[in-house]
Amino acid sequence: MAGNSLPSTLAANVCVNVYYNAYKNSLFADYDKQKSNDKKEFVHRLVYVATTSSQFNSEEKRTTIGEYYDGFLSKFQKNTQTEGVTGVLLLYPKCIIHVLESSADVLTLLLKDLSNMEQNPSSPLQQGRILVTSHMIPSRLFPSWGYRFVTPPLSLQDASLQAEPVETLVPDCLAVIYKLCLRLLKRKQDTFPGLDVQEQALVLEEDTVLHLCHSPVLRSPSTYLEVYTKPQHILMDSEIVWPTHRRLCW
Fold first, then answer.
1. For position 53, which CATH number holds?
2. Which of 75, 138, 205, 228 is deepest in the core (most CB within 10 A)?
């Protein structure tokens, strides 16, 4: 039962169940574990897509998008008080896929910046959609952050894609994106901004990414932040009394 032991400071005051360790399965234990691994905060992973404005479709203009995020994220890399940012930015001619790993505060600031872009028609990115937010990931996929140019494969899709539910399409797309991420990890040279032949075979078709960007089902950065910052009032069963419980609005 060594793997189910408690810290000595807690062992005297906590009754240990043979089949369930309340300390080991607690949020505090996960926080304590991350501290032991020299982590300052919980690390989360964010994957989102967005369209690029027509004036940013050339490779030269796409470079400015990569340089913009390189400068935007560099201030977090230099700050020793926050978690570093790792991930990859895939630059298509008409859209992007961005995989980011960092603390919740850093990811929130990035979503706020992306939300501000949506309010400005001349900004490089529009119609952002969040595919997934993975909280408290046990390990990172990337050792650093960088961007890659993507040459989309020839589209072989038919009209049936437009009728496919987003709930089915998103997990399939994420599986392909993560496979590409694992392939990028095996590359030894990180200075070359393009993709090799094997990596190119794992690239999502651009029409698929654009279809996700126009989906009304997925949350945009602004709607995500609205839910994220909105307080949740959950009425517990123990709070229900007679007369009916009412919240006072001041």
1. 3.30.70.100
2. 205
pLDDT at 153: 67
Strands (E), 92-174: 95-102, 125-134, 145-149
User: Within its chain, how far is the Cα of 12 from the centroid?
Assistant: 41
Torsion of CA 54, 60, 65, 66, to 10 degrees: 150
Residue 127 pLDDT level (bands cut at 50, 70, 90): very high
The two three-digit tokens of residue 9, written as one number:
């400071």
Q: What is the DSSP string of 193-248?
A: -S--HHHHTTPPPHHHHHHHHT-SSSPPHHHHHHHHHSPP----GGG--SSPP---
Give the model's pLDDT for residue 46: 95
Q: Could you give the maximum distance between any two Cα atoms of the chain, in Å?
A: 69
Residue 173, Cβ density class (10 Å: 0-12 exposed, 13-18 middle, ≥19 buried): buried
Beta bridge partners of 68: none
| Domain count for the chain | 1
Say how many C-beta atoms besides its own lie within 10 A of residue 63's C-beta: 15
Supply the pLDDT for residue 165. Answer: 84
204: which 2 tokens? 């999502």
Q: Is 249 within a domain?
A: no
> Could you tell me if residue 5 is inside a domain?
no
More confident site: 41 or 172? 172
Residue 10 lies in a domain: no
Give the domain extent around 56: 44-229
In a domain, 80, yes or no: yes
- pLDDT tens track for 9-43: 444 444 444 444 555 566 666 656 655 555 567 88
